[in-house]
Amino acid sequence: MVPRFLKRALTGEDIVIYGDGSQTRSFCYIDDNIETCIKAITDTEAINEIINVGSDKEMTVLELAQLILKITGSSSRIIHHEPLKEGDMARRCPEISKMKKMLNRELLPLEEGLKKLIAFYQQK
């Protein structure tokens, strides 16, 4: 969803949200995800452990779209379509205490991650 929303905002296209946008998600920057996965396969303390990878900062899909519009300065509109019939969970937010312990640092904040993605997309 993040790449799709960003690309649409950067090109001035409408951002499509299914339903009212109240469903929640948490967003983890790819570098944090990869570092956790590498540590999980190289750290003997992680053997046979279940480690959730993600972010514990929860926000609505609508809030994400609004933040992307704000950061990009886009004039794109947010358009609501009918909710998806199947598979759209109302809430997604993992418990990531083991991930945080493995990284021993804070995760990259969403806004900083979005700015990095914007810079990447603008290079192309």
UniProtKB/TrEMBL annotation:
UniProt keyword list: Decarboxylase, Lyase, NAD
Species name: Cecembia lonarensis (strain CCUG 58316 / KCTC 22772 / LW9)
Superkingdom, taxonomy of origin: Bacteria
One annotated GO biological process: D-xylose metabolic process
GO CC terms of this entry: cytoplasm
InterPro entries for this protein: Epimerase_deHydtase, NAD(P)-bd_dom_sf, UXS-like
Single GO molecular function: NAD+ binding
Pfam families reported in the protein's UniProt record: Epimerase
Transmembrane segments: none
Upper taxonomic lineage: Bacteria, Pseudomonadati, Bacteroidota, Cytophagia, Cytophagales
The protein's name in its UniProt record: NAD-dependent epimerase/dehydratase family protein
Domain NAD-dependent epimerase/dehydratase: 1-54
Cofactor: NAD(+)
